[in-house]
Amino acid sequence: MNKFFNRFAFAVLAVALFCGQARAQFTTTFAKNASPGQQNGLYYSLPQTMLQLDFVIRETVCEPGPLSDYADNYFENEDYVDYQTTTYELLDVRMSQKATPDPNAMFFVTFTAGRGTGGAIFDVLPNGIIRSVGMVGNKEEDTFKYVEKQEVESVNSEMAHSDKAGFVPLMTAGKTNSMLAKEAVDKIEEIRKAKFYLISGDVEMASNPETFSAMCNKLDEMEQQYLSLFFGRSTTREVVRTIYVIPNKETPTQTVAKFSETEGLTSGTAGSGDAITVQTLPLNTTAVINAPSQSAVESMSYENKVMYRIPETANVKVTYNGQTLIEERQTVNQLGVIVMAPVANSKLYFDTETGQIVNIKMQ
Questions:
Q1: What span, in angstroms and rounded, lies between the C-alpha atoms of 109 and 343?
Q2: Coil, strand, or helix at residue 281?
Q3: CA–CA distance, 274 with 185 (Å, rounded to integer)
Q4: E strand or H helix that includes residue 214
Q5: Which of 87, 132, 262, 291 has the fewest CB atoms in 10 Å of its CB?
Q6: Rg (CA), the chain
Q7: What average pLDDT score do residues 261-280 get?
């Protein structure tokens, strides 16, 4: 009886060992624990949230006219631009986000020689963010179609609000600036006389209101073009400047840029002006999850399991000079928790924007 029992126990143990080998298809460890030069595996990462702040700025350039030295001679008690200046005004800020690989959530997967009918299949994006993983049998066909999110690229843009052409051209051949100034003043007088005749009713076309308005506007435009030769001109445009911010748990409030009316927007803390800060306060939506500590995630190895992330919701506020520019609730991946999921006779699909599992297919 004992002899039969020993043989039976040995058979059960052999089957258990066989099954264990069949199931141990891969092992997941924290990336820094991988041996240098180790090739039998792959790296994958979970996404972190990178905030994109698009600042809308009005930029005004004042430049002196080519005949500004003669402004006092012909136009007394008039202000004119005698040197070029650029001023900036902060109009608005827009907030969006992008997903990038998180260096603090990168893992190494080692494949082992199992004797099962299927193997472990990992699908990652070109940047290393995991998209799906599963134990797929030879007879199984994956019919689930994963729809990738479309990313809209944001680029710095510019919207002009004034004429960017040069000053009104002058016939300068063989003429001094003094002569050019006299010609420009004579031209201004001609325009003003034409406008006087138009307003006084001496021009028949002025009886038509639309024609009258168009002629007045054209004469005003011509006069300003010639006056700008003496007084200078200003060119205004609206530009969008982008600052990227990666929130973290250690620094809930970050100084991301500085802004001044004379220097505009500069990233970081080295520029002049008042600071622009980003405050990220988690709403503790993941506080009830009994997740492993970061040290446990980094120190342990897991067979046939992958790490995924449950993102946190946070209140994000951008302030400048004591005023709130924008305040929104955003999903911030890296403020959430990392947990593990078994991969056994199933396939897992991940949201590549958050690292959360969005679909499970049982084999």
A1: 13
A2: strand
A3: 44
A4: helix 209-231
A5: 262
A6: 35
A7: 92
Instruction: Return d(Cα 152, Cα 146) in angstroms, integer.
Output: 19
pLDDT score for 166 = 62
pLDDT tens digits for range 311-356: 999 999 999 998 999 999 999 999 999 999 998 888 999 999 999 9
* 351 three-state secondary structure: coil
pLDDT at 114: 54
Query: Which residues, listed in sequence order, are joined to residue 60 by a DSSP beta bridge?
Result: 87, 236
Residue 100's SS3 state is strand
Nearest Cα to Cα of residue 104 among 32, 26, 53, 211: 32
Burial 58-91 (b: 16+ CB within 10 A, else e): bbbeebbbbbbebbeeeeeeeebbeeeeebbebe
pLDDT exceeds cutoff 80 at 18: no
Positions of E strands within the chain: 26-30, 41-63, 85-111, 118-124, 130-137, 158-160, 233-245, 253-260, 264-267, 274-282, 302-303, 305-320, 323-342, 346-350, 357-362
- Count Cβ atoms below 10 Å from residue 218 Cβ, excluding itself: 13
Residue 22 pLDDT level (bands cut at 50, 70, 90): very low
Binning pLDDT at 50, 70 and 90, where does residue 212 land? confident
Both tokens of 179, joined, read: 């002569």
> Encoding tokens for residue 103?
């260096």
Which residue, 161, 162, 158, 179, is CA-closest to 170? Answer: 179
What angle is formed at CA 230 by the lines to CA 228 and CA 231, rounded to 5 degrees?
60
**Residue of 242 and 302 predicted with greater confidence:** 242
Position 16 scores a pLDDT of: 34
